[in-house]
């Protein structure tokens, strides 16, 4: 029996020698574990209609291509579910303001946000109720 188990032990699918990248790492002691060159994310293979509906993967990316419909299915899959969101990836189009008070719409009480329209240096239009508001703010350059 021992002879049989020793001869079949060499037929294992798992290699006893692991590459350096697959060895366990103690993160409390080893800090520099990321590669020097960035790893590019794979480009999803979608048909043309779906590419038009999806946003850029630089702004929104999910670890799974399909979201499991139940928690039990997600647990059974043993895959991490995560989202990577960069809503303001292009900061050149984002107006930045400063104010001494919190700027809110006088009608619907919505806070000033990146989706409002600035009419001039003192007035802005709410993106929810479309009221034109006066604001005590100034733009940063």
TrEMBL record:
Matching InterPro entries: SEC23_SEC24_subfamily, Znf_Sec23_Sec24
BP terms from Gene Ontology: COPII-coated vesicle cargo loading; intracellular protein transport
Specify the domain of life of the species encoding this protein: Eukaryota
Q: Which GO terms describe its cellular component?
A: COPII vesicle coat; endoplasmic reticulum exit site
Q: Name one GO molecular function term.
A: zinc ion binding
- Entry-linked Gene3D superfamilies: Zn-finger domain of Sec23/24
Domain spans labelled Zinc finger Sec23/Sec24-type: 102-134
Q: What is this protein called?
A: SEC24-like protein B, COPII coat complex component
The protein's organism comes out as: Myotis myotis
